[in-house]
Each structure stands twice: as structure tokens, then as C-alpha cells.
From TrEMBL:
Keywords: Membrane, Transmembrane, Transmembrane helix. This is SHOCT domain-containing protein. The chain crosses the membrane at residues 36-57, 64-81, 87-106.
């Protein structure tokens, strides 16, 4: 996976830097409105092309690329407009893009290694930490940090670790739930959620309840995960619902 990200990142960098450099050289010889239009055309084509390539990176990367979206949205225009002033500006933007690319490639390479060499373990959820700003990836999913007690089949003592994951709204793990994780044997703090493994729930689930109550409970979970209810409000509402 990291090789694919590395190739696309190199292409992404080229598609930002080269149009800015070409536009800068063309502006030195602009003598008409048509020439200025050609420069703007080069910049526009470069912007669209790099954005398409970064979209490919975002879809293939198993790591979040939020910072990359800011770079792909703003840096190409900054490079285009500042390169004619001084090529040192272009060097600065190139270093920023290259630095981000190297960082992302490194993170993906770490994940490749984890998936290749990692061992399976069980994480018992101790706490679900909601970000200060409730991060909803899209209308159906949100990001949470899980504080886990990791249990390994080797029989070693359990230990605490944190894991950031994206979960469908209404299916975010709760305290005492058990999730399957992949653990780096050389870096026990480096863990990943095994997505195709079901979450073992500690609390009553819809399959254990009457259909009407199950539907209302699922709605309450979605409201909590979306941020419409606090954890305390959800716990109270769930308790009242299950007592019916």
C-alpha cells in the first residue's frame, strides 16, 4: 500500500509545482491578454489535476488525510501566485508538500507492517472519548477515541492503550464492550481495529429486545453519537426505555 501512496504523492507534488513554475516562466513573457489567459489556463489545469490525484490518495490511504485536504485546496493557488515573485516561495511550498507526503507514506508503511506482522488481541473498552469538536466523518459515521484494556493470547499481562477509529453512528462501542484489535508485537501501543470482526456488546442489543424498543434504542444511540444527547442523558433515557 505504501508504494501506491508514494507514487501518487510524487505525482501530486509534481502537478502542484510544475504548473506554478511554468506559469512563472510564461509571465516573464506575457505581452497580451491572450498570453495571460494561457497562464491562468495552465494554473487551472494543474489545480484540477492535482486535486484529482489527491482524491485518489485519500481514497486509498488507510490513514486520515485532513491536513492533505487543506494543502490540496490552498497551496496550489499560493504556489501559482507567489512563484512569480520569487522561486524561494515555490521552494517553500515544495518542501511543505514533500514533508506531508513523506509523513503520510511513513504512517501508511507503519500500518502495512502492522497488518503484516501484527498479532490478534482483544480490547475491552474502558472509556469512549468524544472529541471536543464532535467529528462526524459523514452523515452516517463519526470518529471516536477508545481507551482499551488490551488482552493478548500469549498470556502477557493486560495493558492500557488508546485507539482512534471511525464508527457508524448508532454502533459506537460502549464501556465493557470487547473489540478485536491487531497489535504490533514490537510496539504494543501501536494497535488497529480489525474492522471485519463483530463488536461483542456488554449491554442488551436490539436482537435481544422487542422490535419497537430495539428501534427506539437504536435512535437514542444515533442521537448520542451525533452529539444531540450527552452520555448521561443517553444512559438515563436507555434505562427508562429498558424498564418499560
Amino acid at each position: 500500500m505504501w508504494r501506491t501512496i508514494a507514487t501518487l504523492s510524487l505525482l501530486w507534488c509534481v502537478l502542484i509545482v510544475v504548473p506554478a513554475l511554468i506559469g512563472s516562466l510564461m509571465l516573464d513573457h506575457v505581452g497580451s491578454a491572450a498570453s495571460t489567459g494561457r497562464v491562468l489556463g495552465v494554473w487551472l489545469v494543474g489545480y484540477v489535476a492535482q486535486f484529482v490525484v489527491f482524491l485518489m490518495i485519500s481514497r486509498r490511504s488507510p490513514r486520515p488525510v485532513l491536513m492533505g485536504w487543506f494543502i490540496a485546496s490552498l497551496v496550489p493557488w499560493a504556489a501559482d501566485w507567489t512563484a512569480p515573485l520569487s522561486l524561494w516561495w515555490l521552494a517553500l511550498w515544495t518542501a511543505l508538500i514533500a514533508g506531508y507526503g513523506v509523513w503520510l507514506i511513513g504512517r501508511v508503511a507503519e500500518l502495512d507492517q502492522l497488518r503484516r506482522d501484527g498479532v490478534r488481541g482483544i480490547g475491552v473498552v474502558l472509556e469512549v472519548i468524544r472529541p471536543i469538536f464532535n467529528v462526524v466523518v459523514n452523515k452516517d459515521a463519526g470518529r471516536r477515541v477508545l481507551r482499551l484494556s488490551i488482552e493478548l493470547p500469549s498470556g502477557t499481562a493486560s495493558y492500557e492503550a488508546r485507539l482512534t477509529g471511525t464508527f457508524i453512528l448508532g454502533e459506537v462501542p460502549e464501556s465493557e464492550d470487547r473489540v478485536a484489535v491487531r497489535v504490533d508485537p514490537h510496539r504494543p501501543d501501536r494497535i488497529e481495529l480489525i474492522e471485519d470482526e463483530p463488536i461483542l456488546r456488554a449491554a442488551p442489543q436490539p436482537s435481544d429486545l422487542e422490535p419497537e424498543i430495539a428501534e427506539r434504542l437504536h435512535t437514542l444511540k444515533i442521537m448520542r453519537d451525533r452529539g444531540d444527547l450527552t452520555d448521561a442523558e443517553f444512559a438515563t433515557a436507555r434505562e427508562r426505555l429498558l424498564e418499560q
